[in-house]
Amino acid sequence: ACFKRDLNCDATAKLKRSLVADVPVPAVIQGSMHDALHARASEPDAEDAFFVADLGEVRRQLVQWMELLPRVQPFFAVKCNPDPLVVKLLASMGTGFDCASKAEIQQVLREGVDPHNIIYAHPCKPASHLRFAQAAGVATMTFDNADELVKIRQLYPGAKAVLRILTDDSSSLCQLGLKFGAAANLTQSLLATAQQLGVDVVGVSFHVGSGCQSEAAFADAVLRARRVFDEAAALGLRLSLLDVGGGFPGRGDQSGLSFEAMATVLNAALAEHFPLQSHGHVRVIAEPGRYFVASAFSLAVNVIARRQVTNNSGPSFMYYVNDGVYGSFNCIMFDHQHPVPQVLTRAGHAVDKQSCLGPLRPSSVWGPTCDSIDCIVSASSLPELQIGDWLVFHGMGAYTICAASRFNGFKISDVVYVDSDSARA
Ligand code: PLP
């Protein structure tokens, strides 16, 4: 046993060494998002589109979470924005992480996160990633089908399995239930299969859909989870973990839905169906992505070309900018977003008040590639802009950079970091 333990220690030490990052950490400017946007756009020869990320905003979102959902430990969904400084900050503040692949697990481990604070939240895992999770000691993982249970039994018999159930995500922008989640009529037999295979099922997870537009979805999902806890109890299984997934809105979300309202509904549902004083305390975690990062990133783009078009309704303008749908604005396709442009600089001057910019013209905004699908805003009203002016899009932190491509040879926009938390300045 001793030899085996030494071997394991060696393997763990080797894994840790292989994870040590040799990447320089970017500088963080103390100051505001507003100042950083203007400063960078006014640099001589500034042309490339760029993000400004405000780490202070990420920190404030975490503080708000702890105030409004004190019972629920957040595990940041890395997929939403694997920005190295965001992950570093959240790791330093003690959040857990939801990882969906080997590379995401590696990134989080590099920040020194305890493997117990990672959930491998993908119900359909490649074998090699599962083997890596075992080597790294990331034991908690989701499943929603019997084949996955067999795979887990073979490759990671010591895993702590979490049954992901289907919920009503009909009011969400991204309906993940089309792909994942065990339907209510299948959960009991899946639990029984796990029992037969000897897989240790420790809890239930759900995801109400990303960009959830209804607080009621959480209340309904918690009730569904309660039923699965009861089914497990009938089989003699005592579950101890409830994972309420993601779906929480970012600050200033276009849906108008507030995190406060969602937290109120979720707290009430937890109190009703998983009361704290009941026997067998249930640990509650969540997998928020958008909530932490959406409002923390703004994207500035440069007008690289324009075209004036005249039709029956008069003149309009087509503006071409240097990030687009194949880049950061992939959120239009994949995340069903409707980014709203504001003028950042005009004729070299910073613009603070959108209302003082003169008459508005019918306008459209296009990305830099040769493809006509690369349209950011098809119909908008903007003041007349010139080549070289800058536009800014706020609320661009979720599902943007992470899925951007270099199609047509255009680069992925850089990130400038600020920390607006004056207490830390
Ligand atoms: N957890 C899982 C399993 C997901 O698939 C996602 C998003 O797709 C998230 C969490 C994060 O969701 P959100 O960004 O809506 O909080």
Task: Give a verbal description of the structure.
- The protein has 425 residues and is of the alpha/beta class.
- The chain folds into 2 domains: 82-288, TIM Barrel; 295-424, Lyase, Ornithine Decarboxylase, Chain A, domain 1 (Beta Barrel).
- It is 31% helix and 25% strand.
- It contains 12 helices and 20 strands.
- It has helices at residues 2-19, 33-41, 55-68, 84-92, 102-110, 127-136, 146-155, 187-197, 216-234, 259-273, 290-293, 331-334; strands at 28-30, 50-54, 72-77, 96-99, 118-120, 140-143, 160-164, 172-174, 200-205, 210-212, 241-243, 283-286, 297-311, 314-321, 341-346, 349-350, 360-366, 375-383, 390-393, 414-419.
- Strands 1, 2, 13, 14, 15, 16, 17, 18, 19 and 20 form a 10-stranded mixed sheet that branches. The protein has an 8-stranded parallel sheet with strand order 5-4-3-12-11-9-7-6. The protein has a two-stranded antiparallel sheet with strand order 8-10.
- Helix 3 packs across helix 4 (84-92) and helix 9 packs parallel to helix 10.
- The N and C termini lie far apart (52 Å).
- Bound molecules: pyridoxal-5'-phosphate (PLP).
- Homodimer. Only the dimer is catalytically active, as the active sites are constructed of residues from both monomers.
- It comes from Coemansia brasiliensis.
- Keywords: Lyase, Pyridoxal phosphate.
- It holds the Pfam family Orn_Arg_deC_N.
